[in-house]
Specification:
Blueprint (H helix, E strand, L loop, with lengths): L17 H23 L4 H24 L13
Helix pairs in contact: 1-2
Length: 81
């Protein structure tokens, strides 16, 4: 999804893109499922925290991978320029 985003300054809006909505939706779904499991059994707090950290790491890795696949980068938006 990320590599398909238009990265031209004129094309970027002030709002986020679809991939942000997708990430938020998946995280909310995971939390709903975890709450459902917690109703049926005991889930230690440390396990819940570990699962949340793992999901955040996985999402961040996917974001980095997506950004790495972007073909066109505008030098005006680059922090390294």
């Amino acid at each position: 999804m990320i590599e398909k985003v238009r990265w031209d300054i004129k094309e970027l809006g002030a709002e986020h893109n679809q991939y942000v909505d997708a990430i938020c939706k998946e995280m909310q779904s995971m939390m709903r499922k975890l709450r459902h499991v917690k109703k049926k059994t005991v889930v230690p707090v440390d396990m819940c925290r570990l699962m949340a950290e793992h999901n955040v790491r996985a999402a961040m890795l996917q974001l980095v991978e997506g950004y790495a696949r972007v073909k066109k980068v505008c030098n005006l938006a680059s922090p390294l320029s």
